[in-house]
Amino acid sequence: MTIETQADVTGETVPVVVPRTRRPGWRGLLRSGKLRAGLGIVLFFALAGLIGPLFVHDPERVSDDQLFGPSAAHLLGTTNTGQDVFKLLVVSSRGSLTVGLVTGVLATLISIVIGVVGAYVGNRWDEGLSLFSNVFLVLPGLPLVILVTDYLGSRGAAMIAVIIALTSWAGPARVLRAQTMSVRGRDYVDAARVSGEPAWRIIGFEVLPNLLPIIAAQFIFAVLGGILTEAALAFLGLGGSGSWGTMLYFAQNAQALSLGAWWWFVPPGLCIAVLGAGLALINFSLDELINPRLRVPRDKANRPATAGTP
């Protein structure tokens, strides 16, 4: 609780005890069911991508079976060349997660440098960087990624992630610029500037901590965008080898849908959808932390409805 002063009927100021309003922070965020579910899904796929290939034999090893459905020998069936779909699914998870993680890190770093630094420095730096981000903002994302990937001719997961990141940072940079311009004029930032602290320290210790929820949400969104974009590229034949999108590409080329081989294309598509749902749940939880209007107080959520209460 806090103590404030208030004038009474005689005009004299008397102390008044005012209860302190609880601000939901990161501890309150961890109580969110959406966040726990999202973290569980993402952690499951992360462990599958990290340690799963260590316990799975070479999926490229062709067996004697030819396009058989799920069985005790092959949990998710086989492809038209006899490859085990379950082994392919586990090994391909590492490629998709690598592209998403690298894309998220690079896109977030670029948006911080251009959005936050440019907005804090201001003047011509802000105008130039803002114009630069506006140019990338109006460019079509997926067609540009297709053209650059086809021109470079690289199919590595790292290079594809870099290309996706270089074409997807403009939107987050604009959001961070707007938030930084509202933060840089606050009292604590002015106090740090008057005390003689360097600009890099003010940005790192005064500005960025107030932008962490937004940066975290943008990072998760960039990871999800990287995974979906890589899957689209791989489905078009422009992606790298060893990802869920590559499995969909080969299934489409072999006409798995026409042959009724649902066990070939449903598992990778379902993994992309479930992982995207997990990342979306985490993003929704961060949105509740950023926007107070999306939060429902725990006492109101648990309070039973009474007659006559609107």
UniProtKB/TrEMBL annotation:
Membrane topology note: Multi-pass membrane protein
Gene3D superfamilies with a match to the protein in the record: MetI-like
ABC transmembrane type-1 domain location: 97-283
Gene Ontology molecular functions: dipeptide transmembrane transporter activity
Superkingdom per UniProt: Bacteria
Keyword Cell membrane: yes
Keyword annotations from UniProtKB, A to Z: Cell membrane, Membrane, Transmembrane, Transmembrane helix, Transport
GO cellular component, one term: plasma membrane
Subcellular location(s) per record: Cell membrane
Iron among keywords: no
InterPro entries per UniProt: BP-dependent_transpt_permease (IPR050366), MetI-like (IPR000515), MetI-like_sf (IPR035906)
Signal peptide: none
Similarity field: Belongs to the binding-protein-dependent transport system permease family.
Protein name: ABC transmembrane type-1 domain-containing protein
Organism per entry: Rugosimonospora africana
